[in-house]
Amino acid sequence: MHRALSYLLGLILVLSVLSLLTACGGPQKEPTTSKPESPAQPPITAEKPETPAPPPTKPTEPPTSPEQPEQKPTEKSEPAVVVPGEQPTEVVAPAPAEIKNPETLIIANAGDADTLDPVHAYDTASGEVLFNTYENLIAYEGSRTDRFVALLAGEVPTLENGLIRTESDGITYITFPIRTNINFHDGSPLTPEDVAYSFRRLMIHSHADSAAWILLEDLLEIHDLKDLSEKVGDAEACEMVKEAVTVKGNHVVFKLPKPSATFLARIAQSASWAAIQNKKFVIENGGWDDDCATWKQYYSVEKEKLPLHNRALGTGPFKLERWTPGGEIVLVRNENYWRVPAQLSRVVIKIVPEFGTRKLQLERGDADIISVARQFVPQMEGMPGVRTVKNLPNILNETVFFTYEIAIEGNPNIGSGRLDGNGIPTDFFTDLDVRKAFNHSFDWQEYVEQIYLGEAQQSYGPIPQSLSASVNREGPRYSYDPQKAEEHFKKAWGGQLWERGFKMTLVYNEGNDIRKQAAQIFKDNIEALNPKFQIEVRGEPWPTFLDNYRAKKLPMFIIGWLADFPDPHNFALPFMHSQGTYAQKQSLNKIANYDDLIMQAARELDPAKRQQLYYQLQQKAYEDAIDVFLVDAVGRSWQRTWVNGWMYNPMWPGQNFYTLSKRANADVHPDLLSELPQVVIEAW
Fold first, then answer.
1. Taking the CB of residue 459, how many other CB atoms lie within 10 A of it?
2. CA–CA separation, 261 vs 15, rounded Å?
3. Which member of 58, 394, 435, 676 has the lowest number of beta carbons within 10 Å of its beta carbon?
4. Are 429 and 587 in contact (CB under 8 A)?
5. What is the helix (H) or strand (E) element at residue 569, kind and residue range?
6. What's residue 375's pLDDT?
7. For residue range 129-138, what is the model confidence (pLDDT) as tens digits?
8. Gyration radius (Cα) of the chain, Å
9. In angstroms, how far apart are the furthest CA atoms of the chain?
């Protein structure tokens, strides 16, 4: 989701690119009109005393495992580790009384988390919680998307330090030394086996709704473990998973059949799929026992049955206290965190679908940060005690997807399920004229100017313009044209559609008013063409919306794609590959197959040739009208002016609570403006 980025453009660049991936660190966003110098962070020399672990936090449901083990005393206390740009800003005196809840950050979000299990979580609402409770081996450096900092790993692998090694047969080994004296929230020590198990468990759990493909593609050249097991057998498939991630002493080694210029980026994004879990805790709570004889029992498990669905045990700066679905998520500070503990003692994420309520909470100081849909910006500007951070870069695509094989059983969104004027057939959108008519019915100019207030541009296709080298800005795009829309509707389904009409429901996720307005634009413009056309617009809670889109019950669904790693392949595959996250749920293979071209582009070594392949994919997406590609937009954040140390990275799924505090005369993180000079801050 981003702008001026250094992108990894080809596998041929692996040697030169990976040699540049050196350790650094840093948070994100919050610009001001002047650019302050970044003060040097004071070195931390005091060793962290060995203290008994506090009792574990209470999950929403009591764990089924026995009591948590006592924290083992370490042989040697290590100094607290500071990751540049990631640690909290300098410790300050307690906030003055007029600052509400001075040690608690309160966020009002429109949507709830989907699940808290890292192997299944693949949405930003869930990712924000995991980002702050779990940790990865490495993380993005500050606001950069092309450099990394070591986190649970003691060092970022590079060619220079010998931790990346490619053999003559092309097999590449990437080795991560694991830090010692890091404990999970229950006091148990982090081990290399926990790291290896976390990645194996992700791959074992693989299915179309998870992020497992991100690892499977690089490690085993597949997208779903079931496909591999059908070729080589269940036992052999599992053994290949284990061979891909092994433990050697205090190191974890990844074995890649080919070099990859994006592997480090694949495991650095937030915490979700690369989050390091406690192997013993997962197994005790009913997770995979790391035995190849049993893995099929844990493949594609429903999220509610996952061992970590509503509990968390990570190494991060915050611990999960409770999750009340539809209500709030409460995190508490990890007092025994291996780095400097966070300054905030608590974080409360409230689920508040109604914008008016969120606005009032921010105005009163009952919330510190809220989500604000773009059309409500005029209501926010000038609010005393509030600031907005503008021009935040995104590597993000917002799209309206057609479902080509709609589920009919128990589905209220397709009416009669037939082309009889009271519904739509399950294959309604397989007709190219229907898709083109819908594209010509959307008014981008109205959407950009009235909803995004000019802070967006119409998309050119599935790949966002922030990945500029892969986007053909001379390529064709659809435009709002009622006459052309009518022409295509009259051709659709052999003329029957225009004569009989149709009825369907367009669902958006509650609280997302931008998507609600997009749905309303379709409704207004299409119904104006023919009184027999009926579109109902309905909102659903985020978890329900996700479940229904996965079940193929939504004829159309509006959703965004936040980059998993900053490369065009990360958009071409989920949007256009038959096994891609969205394309698979659309049943895109009912109208076309672009798999070979997508994989050819991903493996192309020449940047110029690779660019042309992505241009071809962009053209095919247009000609086949596979979706309605909406806009590429810059982002904003709205927060009280007492929020201190706010930072941003386009790859983060949400707020980084570790850098934050509350105080008078607060400011954004000192690295924000130096790393993202285009950002602007306005405060009142």
1. 23
2. 8
3. 58
4. no
5. helix 569-576
6. 87
7. 999 999 999 9
8. 25
9. 80
